[in-house]
Amino acid sequence: MSIFVGLQPDGCKDSGLNCPLVEGESYSYPKTINVENNYPRIKFILQWKLITEENKTLFCVKIPVKIV
Q1: CA dihedral (60, 23, 28, 18) positive or negative
Q2: What pLDDT, on a 0 to 100 scale, did the predictor assign at position 6?
Q3: Number of domains present in the structure of the chain
Q4: pLDDT the model gives residue 10
């Protein structure tokens, strides 16, 4: 679930990545998230995962976020 509108759930689309990814290679996955004025002013832990079609986790990070 996401409160951020417009995030592409498919990490291979509109990301600059050439899929399928190759094991052992390094990749960069820059992402910008727009914070709208109507978002609630809250603190939370953002968990972001990239998961393969086989449901294996490629990437997982938890980031403390505060919208003010």
Answers
A1: negative
A2: 65
A3: 1
A4: 83
Which whole-number Å values give the CA distances from 60 to 4, 41, 57, in the listed order? 18, 25, 7
Answering whether pTM is above 0.70, one says no
The range of the structural domain enclosing residue 20 comes to: 1-68
CATH number of residue 11's parent domain? 2.60.40.770
| Residue that has been written with the tokens 């403390």 in this structure | 64
Rounded to 10 degrees, what is the CA torsion of 36, 47, 12, 34? 10
Residue ranges in 1-68 assigned as alpha helix (H): none
Contacts (Cβ under 8 Å, ≥6 apart) of 60: 47, 48, 49, 50
13-68 pLDDT tens trace:
888 888 888 889 998 888 778 888 888 899 999 888 888 888 888 888 899 999 98
